[in-house]
Specification:
By secondary structure, the chain is an alpha/beta fold. The chain has a domain of 248 residues: Rossmann fold, CATH 3.40.50. The protein is 41% helix and 17% strand. It has 18 helices and 15 strands. The protein has a 7-stranded mixed beta sheet with strand order 1-4-5-15-10-11-14, with helices on both faces. α6 packs parallel to α8, α11 crosses α13 and α16 packs across α17. The longest helix is centred in the C-terminal third of the chain and has 20 residues. It starts with 6 loop residues before the first strand and ends in a 7-residue tail after the last helix.
Length: 435
């Protein structure tokens, strides 16, 4: 292995010019989404009231590579390619022979990986004459990324933010509003779906499923209004593959290759974007583990059922075959708000079901302990969501120390925690508990 600097910085020419589509390389085809009324396989035209046709075509495309439009690449260049970093200080602290690398997606203007798809979705909507988008957000990473993207393309945006996170993370709301979005805590009185939930439980912390129902209800009321989703769907994971594709180029530069690829999972976008470009290597016989990490408070992959389910609480979305905790599930208000979704991406769910990927879950307190360890060695404060991946990385690195094996561990640093310091305050003061 070559001598290498701590930060392996790719050049602008290394930004991928095409997204990688895993659909033609899956071990078996995805089962089709079902229409919510008929339970028959959904047709592309059925999705037209919600999504622009450009994204619908990507959702079902069998093309292995899909070109990234020039207008999208122009905006990607604001922060891409993202740094590829060797976590040498963490390695030394853990006294592990493991080699730990991470991709720092927290350097985007919104502080997470989410702009990779937000910019693309805003572009395709603008191209087809859409005036306004609606969306949901948990911890606010997706809402802020889409607010930034809509600002760049001159689109209005209405965000429904899960109520518990709306109050836990007020500065994410400020971030969205600074970029011009309107933000509403969910459930709200703005929609019939929200009013029904509040009537049953006025004190509900809310959920992503409820917020999705509200956003879709608002979207279908106008011809020039569409809905935008930050995770789960095929086209979202497609856009995120710039992460794994850049990482592969960086590994070529340093003459290394991962034995493990690790990422946190809520709906599956950042883990999918990181791990999917490595799926073909595993399917071709490469000894590589793809590890999805989730919270025990919302254990979709580790505790859910693999079955058709709605993506939202009000049963307005198509039914997707995925691991699910049930579309009426309302998770407790943990700080990893971006990982509190009842279902997982059909692509990720299928790959876990087929044994190509594996999943594990961690409690909140041990995750923050790992986050502080990372902060005090590498210097960067991670988002609570990212910290789940870091916990798994530390566990695997310790196993290498105990076995003496020098394995290569790669993970996605999916977002910084600078707007999550209230959560760190709870942990450091001893007030944080497992939920």
């Amino acid at each position: 292995m070559k001598e290498q600097p701590k930060i392996i910085q790719l050049e602008e020419k290394d930004i991928p010019e095409a997204w990688y589509n895993v659909l033609p390389d899956l071990p078996k085809p995805l089962e089709p989404p079902l229409h919510p009324a008929t339970r028959e396989p959904i047709k592309p035209d059925d999705l037209a009231p919600i999504f622009p046709m450009g994204l619908i075509e990507q959702e079902v495309s069998q093309e292995r590579y899909i070109d990234i439009p020039g207008e999208v690449l122009d905006i990607y260049r604001i922060w891409r390619p993202t740094p590829f970093i060797r976590a040498t200080r963490l390695e030394q602290y853990l006294q592990t022979p493991a080699r730990i690398y991470y991709k720092n997606e927290g350097v985007s203007p919104a502080g997470s990986h989410k702009p990779n798809t937000a910019v693309a979705q805003a572009y395709y909507n603008k191209k087809e004459g859409v005036r306004k988008l609606t969306t949901e957000t948990g911890a606010g990473q997706w809402g802020s990324a889409l607010a930034m993207a809509c600002n760049f393309f001159g689109l209005e945006l209405q965000v429904f933010m899960v109520r518990s996170s709306f109050h836990q993370k007020p500065y994410r709301r400020v971030l969205m509003e600074t970029w011009g979005a309107k933000v509403q805590p969910s459930p709200s009185e703005m929609t019939e779906a929200g009013r029904k939930v509040l009537e049953k439980d006025p004190d509900t912390p809310g959920s992503l499923g409820i917020a999705i129902s509200e956003a879709i209800e608002l979207a279908v009321q106008g011809d020039d209004v569409k809905y935008s989703l930050g995770s789960v769907l095929n086209h979202v994971l497609l856009h995120q593959t710039v992460i794994g594709l850049e990482a592969k180029k960086a590994f070529e530069l340093v003459g290394d290759f991962p034995d493990m690829v690790i990422g946190c999972v809520g709906g599956g976008s950042n883990f999918g974007g990181t791990a999917l470009p490595f799926v073909v290597d595993r399917l071709q016989g490469k000894d590589i583990r793809l590890i999805a990490v989730e919270p025990t408070s919302c254990p979709t992959l580790t505790g859910g059922r693999f079955e058709y389910d709605f993506g939202d609480t009000a049963e307005m979305t198509p039914l997707l075959l995925m691991y699910t905790l049930g579309h009426e599930f309302v998770p407790p208000p943990s700080h990893a708000g971006g990982l509190r979704y009842h279902g997982d991406a059909p692509i990720i769910s299928l790959l876990v079901k087929e044994g190509v990927m594996e999943a594990r879950a961690y409690h909140q307190v041990e995750v923050f302990e790992a986050a502080v360890t990372f902060s005090r060695t590498e210097g960067i404060i991670p988002a609570p969501e990212t910290s789940h991946a870091i916990k798994a990385v530390i566990d695997e690195a310790v196993k290498c120390r105990e076995s003496g094996e020098s394995k290569c561990i790669f993970f996605n640093f999916s977002g910084h925690g600078l707007l999550d310091l209230a959560a760190y305050d709870e942990y450091l003061s001893g007030r944080l508990s497992d939920v």
